[in-house]
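Q: Please design a sequence for this.
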């Protein structure tokens, strides 16, 4: 329980920011999942989806949703999947 006005505000702000971060992370996972599904079908579509996934990963890293090294690692793994 908050003891001051500022503590109440911090709770409210933290809830709002958490909801935004969760939404961004969910969108990122959806983009990656869409790419992985497209690998089984059309290669041109997979190439487009890879570009979208990489862009989403870069944005998430810039926003602080995920760590920049985690983004780099994921991009590397996704790119390898397209090559195989």
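A: Design:
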């Amino acid at each position: 329980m908050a003891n001051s006005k500022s503590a109440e505000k911090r709770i409210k702000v933290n809830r709002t920011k958490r909801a935004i971060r969760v939404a961004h992370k969910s969108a990122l996972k959806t983009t990656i999942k869409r790419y992985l599904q497209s690998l089984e079908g059309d290669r041109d579509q997979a190439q487009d989806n890879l570009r979208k996934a990489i862009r989403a990963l870069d944005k998430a890293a810039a926003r602080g949703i995920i760590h920049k090294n985690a983004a780099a690692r994921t991009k590397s793994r996704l790119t390898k999947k397209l090559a195989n």
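Q: Thanks. Anything notable?
A: Residues 67 and 73 are 10 Å apart (CA to CA). The chain has a mean pLDDT of 95.
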